């Protein structure tokens, strides 16, 4: 039926039906996720959790995969809410709100306080089904406040969190929370840089000056050389760009790829090169580095750099671990006569490096694609496309 065939109330009725159907599908998905988790099914594909499997095999964001896993766990403790979710009366977002009340710590606190969870379940469900969304937010928060009237224990680490969300253009959104003491430390560090950088005619807003100060704080820490090493190397800002783009005076949008995945213009890469070291890497037609600068012999740090440039992260199917989480693995083990060479190397995160030493296998194909096999010889694959059923 095309949209022109629907008028007035028919359109709104159709929307309501589809929302209810989505809720029912979300409920069924939550049940399947929980069943897979209890069966430790992700281990079959070499992954440690349903959240990582959902990210790698279903292309969900980290936030959505985590929410789905939390929801299915929460519904085990809230059967009335689960029933309403199954019926399409409650959304996954409402379940996620209620899930805050049944974390392991809060379940333990409720047991100590003698809370009848069935009553809480009934209240949450009634509000979720019959009242505006904002009312459920307030009811859940009121329960949490009553459960812990004295507030959290004065452990500063429990009051600290930081989430970094990368956008399509490589920009980074920062969201977090610090305890009072941690917040004071950050403010003192930032304010010193803000006050030291006040050129005449400065028209930046306060927010812009703080943003610049945060970047300067990172610059200072990286330049100081005292940060912990990443895989045996000092942390540094890295960008890969074609030589012709680096030499060409044009802007060259999308020409450079940075270490954490951001894509920048060639002009921006040239700006970074003014203040840093440039390493020459020549690639052959198959995408393998042929020349890693002036070294006569391939040293370990050069081998690692080559593997990072070629692989971009863990090559195990379904894994999204970045390069700095990875080891350089010998495809043919060194003890079995395998060379320490790029051709015999693969970048694997610690978990999957262990997996390939216990039966799993990765192979690089002639077209440069990586394939992963289970101990029984079957291949681990991700769906080519996620399409609705006919």
Automatic annotation (TrEMBL):
InterPro entries registered for this protein in UniProt: DUF222 (IPR003870), HNH_nuc (IPR003615)
Domain HNH nuclease: from-to ranges: 302-354
Domain of life of the organism encoding this protein: Bacteria
Protein name, as recorded: HNH nuclease domain-containing protein
Source species of the chain: Geodermatophilus amargosae
């Amino acid at each position: 039926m095309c949209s022109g065939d629907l008028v007035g109330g028919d359109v709104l009725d159709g929307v309501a039906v589809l929302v209810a159907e989505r809720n029912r599908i979300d409920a069924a998905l939550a049940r399947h996720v929980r069943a897979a988790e209890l069966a430790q099914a992700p281990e079959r594909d070499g992954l440690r959790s349903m959240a990582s499997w959902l990210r790698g095999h279903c292309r969900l964001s980290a936030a959505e995969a985590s929410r789905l896993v939390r929801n299915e766990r929460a519904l085990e403790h809230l059967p009335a809410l689960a029933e309403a979710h199954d019926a399409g009366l409650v959304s996954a977002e409402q379940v996620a709100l209620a899930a805050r009340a049944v974390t392991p710590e809060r379940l333990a606190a409720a047991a100590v306080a003698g809370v009848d969870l069935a009553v809480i379940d009934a209240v949450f469900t009634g509000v979720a089904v019959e009242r505006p969304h904002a009312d459920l937010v307030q009811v859940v928060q009121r329960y949490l406040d009553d459960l812990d009237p004295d507030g959290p224990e004065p452990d500063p680490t429990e009051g600290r969190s930081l989430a970094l969300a990368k956008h399509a253009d490589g920009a980074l959104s920062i969201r977090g929370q610090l305890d009072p003491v941690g917040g004071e430390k950050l403010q003192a560090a930032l304010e010193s840089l803000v006050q030291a950088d006040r050129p005449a005619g400065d028209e930046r807003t306060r927010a812009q000056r703080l943003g610049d100060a945060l970047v300067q704080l990172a610059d200072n820490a990286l330049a100081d050389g005292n940060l912990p090493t990443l895989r045996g190397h000092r942390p540094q800002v890295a960008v890969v760009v074609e030589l012709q783009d680096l030499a060409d005076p044009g802007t060259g949008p999308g020409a450079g790829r940075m270490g954490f995945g951001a894509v920048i213009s060639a002009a921006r890469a040239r700006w970074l090169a003014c203040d840093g070291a440039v390493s020459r890497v020549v690639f052959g037609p198959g995408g393998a580095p042929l020349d890693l600068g002036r070294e006569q012999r391939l040293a370990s740090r050069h081998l690692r750099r080559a593997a990072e440039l070629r692989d971009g992260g863990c090559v195990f199917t379904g894994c999204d671990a970045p390069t700095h989480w990875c080891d350089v693995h010998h495809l043919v083990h060194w003890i079995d006569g395998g060379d320490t060479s790029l051709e015999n190397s693969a970048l694997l995160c610690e978990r999957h490096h262990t997996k390939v030493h216990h039966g799993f296998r990765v192979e690089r194909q002639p077209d440069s694609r990586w394939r992963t096999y289970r101990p029984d010889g079957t291949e681990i694959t991700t769906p080519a496309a996620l399409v609705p059923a006919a």
